[in-house]
């Protein structure tokens, strides 16, 4: 029965380690409030529009079409999980359409409302580039 004793010893060790981890407070901090559940149909529709807008912006260079798709997401799906990307891409579309004031507006909106966004750094870079371009004029 050496096998059972070995198994039992290992099981006790695993339970002991798990108990220590749970009681040692290894959590990352206080729990964050859970976000309200998102409507999966809305997420799918908004993601489709985002994909199309991205394609218009990058592949087709159809900046007005991209702007229209992004505006539809902003108007129709304000709770979209990737709205920060939508706002950033709206700034990009406005910049490509030579509407610098609108682009600045969207980049600033991103920085104000979504400062932790993965697009915040790029928005700051764009604003800095635009400032330099304005200074040269």
Question: Describe it for me?
Answer:
- The protein has one domain (41-136): Serine Threonine Protein Phosphatase 5, Tetratricopeptide repeat.
- The longest helix is centred in the first third of the chain and has 22 residues, at 2-23.
- The chain is mainly alpha-helical and 137 residues long.
- Helix content is 74%, strand content 0%.
Structural topology:
Layout: H1 2-23, H2 40-60, H3 63-76, H4 83-96, H5 100-113, H6 120-136
Helix pairs in contact: 2-3, 2-4, 3-4, 4-5, 5-6
Q: Can you give keywords for this protein?
A:
137 residues, mainly alpha, Serine Threonine Protein Phosphatase 5, Tetratricopeptide repeat
**Unreliable residue stretches:** none
For the biggest sheet, the summary is:
none
Percentage of β-strand residues: under 5%
Output the CATH topology.
Serine Threonine Protein Phosphatase 5, Tetratricopeptide repeat
Distance between the termini: 87 Å
Number of beta strands: 0
Indicate the mean pLDDT: 84
What is the top-level CATH class? Mainly Alpha
Number of helices: 6
User: What do we call the CATH homologous superfamily?
Assistant: Tetratricopeptide repeat domain
Order of helices and strands: HHHHHH
Shape: elongated
């Amino acid at each position: 029965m050496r096998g059972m004793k070995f198994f039992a010893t290992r099981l006790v060790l695993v339970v002991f380690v798990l108990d220590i981890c749970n009681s040692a407070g290894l959590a990352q901090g206080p729990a964050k409030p859970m976000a309200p559940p998102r409507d999966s149909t809305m997420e799918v529709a908004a993601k489709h529009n985002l994909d199309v807008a991205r394609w218009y912006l990058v592949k087709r260079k159809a900046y007005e079409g991209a702007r229209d798709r992004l505006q539809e997401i902003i108007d129709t799906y304000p709770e979209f999980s990737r709205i920060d990307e939508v706002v950033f891409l709206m700034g990009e579309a406005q910049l490509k359409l030579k509407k610098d004031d609108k682009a600045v507006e969207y980049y600033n909106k991103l920085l104000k409302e979504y400062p932790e966004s993965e697009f915040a750094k790029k928005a700051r870079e764009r604003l800095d580039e635009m400032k330099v371009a304005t200074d040269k004029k």
